[in-house]
């Protein structure tokens, strides 16, 4: 009987291993196209770009090894450090706006009935569906100096003294671009936050009802702590997206006035395609990657805390 | 169960259709093929058409009619797009190439330095009838280290279009060649009557400073020294040039006042069309089309002011040229097309449509042609901004002037750093 049982047990283990192996192979086959795509179009170019950072190349002649010279040149050039500062500024402000608006929208939607929820979800998400360049062009008309919608509205309601050159003053135009970028991204934050909130068990809120808590107490003590992991993920996504800001800036100001809103992606294109300095362009891309990675890791570290299972 | 199966089948069909559609022809609406690849016609790719600019559209049309045996592909041109297109096709080393593109004469420096352009000198020397028909001054601005890298097709320079109704209303005389002080007096009077003296869009704002420093020096030698990078940007004459332009912006003489340095084309056109701007800056070749677009009937074309009290001789401007990247395929066919594009036949047709062409003898049906071309002899293509791509970008994008407006003289330090770096490398 023991040997029979042993045989059955071994056979069972073997069949199980075989099934797992088969499932693994099938899984790898399905993963292969996506993995190949990521490898060819993201990983390999990333490594190649990193390598090019240490060379000088004008797109035609042979590459020349420069060591860290490209990095030194970039970090000591005022125009480049200025563009890095602007990229960081836009990334941070856009992230704060996107997260703030998105979470508020999600909390507002959670209180609505299903039908109204669908309508408002569509309204709040629609900016995210528009291409960045379209949003940029749209807001040129909103922020135009003389006959723009915003200035005309301020004039109409008696606040003409608040009229500004929204896209004509350097500091102000950065804020405008960052806020518009954040507003556009808030729809994505809203959708994912809503999903996270809807996944919370109702039983947690029943206790609150019994104890007579208000909705905002529920938000503070139940919802926000429990969706922390989703918020953490969204924070990283928004920061990454903010650092890549190009279309919006190009559509709204083309980096102007002058180069006052020139972000790092625009500077990379300028270095490469206008000045034929592909090595420096690659080095600037590497610098931006490092800065973005550090900031994202810092944000994740600051959001660390207890995780709750429910 | 059946529903699930049907849904699965439909999704699979949709996925396959999307994949096949994505793998198919890009159907780029900006590309116009006149032949099939299977016809084995030599292909010539042009990147010269600018959306809405009729003379270039006409030129491409004429080329297609003239060369039915060639596969003429036309791509939409843009100032950033042409650089990217040429450099990426060059770097990729593949079959695709841009065969003829257009750029400003000053913009070909970067390409020439990187050996990305075909040397057209042998072809010019061989066909003296062709080279002899073009203005020598225009041709000379397309040379770099003794080699010809571009063939001019248009001579562009800025002019001012004056709204005559405004000046008549205020009884102000419109003059060509206002000195700086005279221009300021006129501007004050216009501003007091709630008109903006000047409309300059952000893309053209660099004209003001370039014109100002081109006329900032009393002698030709001083100007040449500055244009060659021998004179410091911190020289008092250069700083004065910046100050003169800054005065216009600080006193809100430029439309729409605050933030004028960032005024878009559309904003300025709207301001001119609504009768708020007295003088609008535009290129000579676009006067006809733009005044029609803005609905301005009673206007007069006047010289762009020197913005200086020292000199009024020099006018910024340079030819727009056709260039041939060094990786162009079917070189003989490309040269044939290039010769035709810059022939008397095509250039005369473009002149009839308002383009100021660099032909030695022009016979045109456009009665206003003389008006658009009267300042050709004043052109001074040599410009400090042409010393390098970096300096050119810094000035031409308006960065130099914008930074000066917001940071004062310290803004010139960056320009001086670029000048010194260039001089040290030479």
Give the gist of this structure:
By secondary structure, chain A is mainly α. Chain A has helices at residues 2-52, 69-75, 78-110, 114-129, 132-143, 149-156, 170-198, 202-211, 215-226, 228-243, 247-252, 264-274, 278-302; strands at 55-56, 64-65. The longest helix of chain A is centred in the N-terminal third of the chain and has 51 residues, at 2-52.
How are the SSEs placed, and which strands pair?
The complex is a heterodimer of chains A (310) and B (426).
Chain A: H1 2-52, E1 55-56, E2 64-65, H2 69-75, H3 78-110, H4 114-129, H5 132-143, H6 149-156, H7 170-198, H8 202-211, H9 215-226, H10 228-243, H11 247-252, H12 264-274, H13 278-302
Helix pairs in contact in A: 1-13, 2-13, 3-7, 3-10, 4-7, 7-10, 10-13, 12-13
Chain B: H1 2-23, E1 43-49, H2 54-66, E2 71-76, H3 79-92, E3 100-104, H4 109-113, H5 121-126, H6 128-132, H7 136-140, E4 143-144, E5 147-148, E6 150-156, E7 158-163, H8 164-170, H9 180-192, E8 196-199, H10 206-214, H11 220-227, H12 236-250, H13 265-273, E9 277-283, H14 287-294, E10 299-303, E11 318-323, H15 331-341, H16 344-351, H17 369-373, H18 389-396, H19 399-407, H20 412-425
Parallel strand pairs in B: 1-2, 1-3, 8-9
Antiparallel strand pairs in B: 3-11, 4-5, 6-11, 7-9, 7-10
Helix pairs in contact in B: 2-16, 10-12
